[in-house]
């Protein structure tokens, strides 16, 4: 006497009893596999980078430099902040590798070292603006 399982095997169709078991073990229902965290030094450096980006004036500087390289006087004008304050924030951004200054004659022109950082700032600003929108 043939069982439903052996008939299903011969006919090529799955056994109905097996379908429930397959659905329970479906890859789409599995929790994501745990991944090992990055090394502690990497997490520390990422924290330092995010701290460097945390000040509103530094966020504004990154947004300005995302559009084009700028010298200090252009940043002062665009952000309506004093020159010493802009210079102080640029020092922090430079120390953490966010910006790089290039001397051109009497001026230093600053630019972003990496566009990934601009995306972090742009996405953060966009997220806050979306949250502020009434529903």
TrEMBL record:
Listed name of the protein: Transcriptional regulator
NCBIfam families reported in the protein's UniProt record: HTH_metalloreg
UniProt KW keywords: DNA-binding, Transcription, Transcription regulation
CDD domains recorded: HTH_ARSR
Protein's organism: Saccharomonospora piscinae
InterPro entries xref list: ArsR-like_HTH (IPR011991), HTH_ArsR_DNA-bd_dom (IPR001845), Metal_resp_trans_reg (IPR051011), WH-like_DNA-bd_sf (IPR036388), WH_DNA-bd_sf (IPR036390)
GO terms assigned for molecular function: DNA binding; DNA-binding transcription factor activity
Residue ranges constituting the HTH arsR-type domain according to the UniProt record: 38-132
Region of interest (Disordered), ranges: 1-41
């Amino acid at each position: 006497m043939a069982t439903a399982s052996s008939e299903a095997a011969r006919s090529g169709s799955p056994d109905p009893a097996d379908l429930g078991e397959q659905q329970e073990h479906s890859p789409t229902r599995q929790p994501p596999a745990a991944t090992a965290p990055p090394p502690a030094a990497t997490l520390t450096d990422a924290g330092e980078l995010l701290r460097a980006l945390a000040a509103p004036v530094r966020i504004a500087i990154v947004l300005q430099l995302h559009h084009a390289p700028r010298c200090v006087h252009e940043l002062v004008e665009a952000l309506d902040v004093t020159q010493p304050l802009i210079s102080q924030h640029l020092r922090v951004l430079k120390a953490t590798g966010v910006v790089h200054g290039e001397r051109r004659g009497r001026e230093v022109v600053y630019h972003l070292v990496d566009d990934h950082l601009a995306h972090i700032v742009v996405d953060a600003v966009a997220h806050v603006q979306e949250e502020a929108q009434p529903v």
